[in-house]
């Protein structure tokens, strides 16, 4: 007996996701996810929230990121293994699920490696939109790996970025990023040091992968009025900024109980004041106070951003039909006769 429609779970494969992105347009898709994140951050209190559940090994981390509101439940499985690229594997891969709260049935299973890059870029641009100095047009992007192009395109689409200045310890990564960004209307400058990359930049994005307390930006590199998006410090013992920068910055985070464990602020006392970004978006807390202030978005990635991205993909999957029906849920004719269904399969 074939499974009924209600038991077939739509699956968005990597190929489907790429087709969806091309149908919608990359910048438009990132913008749509950014709008969904802002909408969900405005109703922050309606979500169940918990720091993600992490399993650490000497080489990396595997994390489970759940959240729910009264309608939907979502989780993402994601890894972070900085040395993977040496073996031809990615640092970050992910997949996830959106489910219906009333029945508990999954609505969508999706690849989320690409989707994580889209939503992380959308989140960075939302933070910069609310925190960066007025008229910021130039970004230094340090770390030119898998996330880098997405970060640049999101900033261009949402914040009006005109120039991106690239630096990576691996010149091949910078060359790849510069080539990929050519012809998109962004001025791209490849630099041979982090110091050179930050020249003239109002926005500094650090997006490196290294499992250590790294110093991608030292204190003397950050001048008054800059906005920093620190993306790559997202795990205990894995940070990117000199501690002194944190003491000079107004710090904005996603969900403080998680960021205290994983973010740049793991370097600070546990009562150091931070503002959750949703409060700025909802208008209940101030963002940037003046043109001289250094603002820091201490990004680690939070489950609500994946929830927002998954509900955008759920809508687009229905609109485009770009899914594969997965026989994921057992579906006996009599819901209480699971055993009978199994035994009938013998014949
Ligand atoms: P990646 O491995 O593809 O790229 C990382 C790049 O950083 C590499 O090109 C590497 O050469 C470069 N790098 C390492 N050390 C450097 C240094 N000292 N100076 C300059 N460049 C350096 O990784 P990715 O997928 O692009 O992810 C980048 C980081 O972002 C990772 O640490 C990842 O865990 C993190 N991340 C965060 C979020 C979030 O929501 N905050 C989401 C996704 C990924």
What are the key terms here?
347 residues; alpha/beta; ornithine cyclodeaminase, domain 1; Rossmann fold; 2 domains; eight-stranded parallel beta sheet; seven-stranded mixed beta sheet; 11 helices; 17 strands; 34% helix; globular; binds nicotinamide-adenine-dinucleotide
Beta percentage is 25-35%
Q: Please provide the count of β strands.
A: 17
SS-based class? alpha/beta
Q: CATH first level of the largest domain: which class?
A: Alpha Beta
What's this model, at a glance?
This protein is α/β, with parallel strands linked by helices and 347 residues long. The chain is built from eleven helices and 17 strands. It folds into two domains: 5-114 and 304-328, ornithine cyclodeaminase, domain 1; 132-302, Rossmann fold (3-Layer(aba) Sandwich), CATH 3.40.50.
Question: Can you lay out the helices and strands and say which pair or pack?
Answer:
Blueprint: E1 8-12, H1 14-24, H2 26-42, E2 53-57, E3 60-68, E4 72-80, E5 94-100, E6 106-111, H3 113-131, E7 138-142, H4 148-159, E8 163-167, H5 171-181, E9 187-190, H6 194-197, E10 203-206, E11 213-217, E12 227-230, E13 239-241, H7 243-248, E14 249-253, H8 256-262, E15 275-276, H9 277-282, E16 294-298, H10 303-320, E17 324-327, H11 338-344
Parallel strand pairs: 1-6, 7-8, 7-10, 8-9, 10-12, 11-13, 12-16, 14-15, 14-16
Antiparallel strand pairs: 1-17, 2-3, 3-4, 4-5, 5-6
Helix pairs in contact: 2-3, 2-4, 2-10, 3-4, 3-10
Nicotinamide-adenine-dinucleotide is lined by residues 80, 82, 85, 91-92, 116, 120, 142-147, 168-170, 173, 207-210, 214, 216, 231-232, 234, 299-301.
